[in-house]
Design a protein that fits this description.
Structural class: alpha/beta
Protein name: Putative phospholipid ABC transporter-binding protein MlaD
Helix content: 25-40%
Organism: Aquimixticola soesokkakensis
Distance between the termini: 82 Å
Length: 149
Amino acid sequence: MSENTTEVIVGTGVLLLAAGFLAYAGQIGGWRGPGGDSYTITASFRSADGVSVGSDVRIAGVRVGTVSDLTLDPATFRAQTTLTLDRAVVLADDTAAIIASEGLLGGNFVELLPGGGVFDLEAGAEIVDTQGAVSLMNLLLKYVTGTGQ
């Protein structure tokens, strides 16, 4: 009987520890559970190089959402992104979206530049003013060859 009680106590401890790790991973990953505290908008980029599903969406360096989908539009050959944003973030309809880099060795993320428009972006709306990723190799080649202006 003593062995069985010890196994139950150790098993319960392992399950509680696993649940704690899952809760921590959910917080770090930005999972918020089954709630309506977020909404999605879309943006189309010429190049979304370095951005993938799960990449940050930031305003002024503060994380306000994530990239939830990234597909190629077969008609325009542009990267169609779906951005999931916190419900508390209200954006004007003239907001711009750019692919920005965290630095030379850092990853890329989507930076939102809020506009000053009178109307707000609704859930499911599209950001029209976008700027794709800038290739560091292309910039270096333009500098080295002297073809850039």
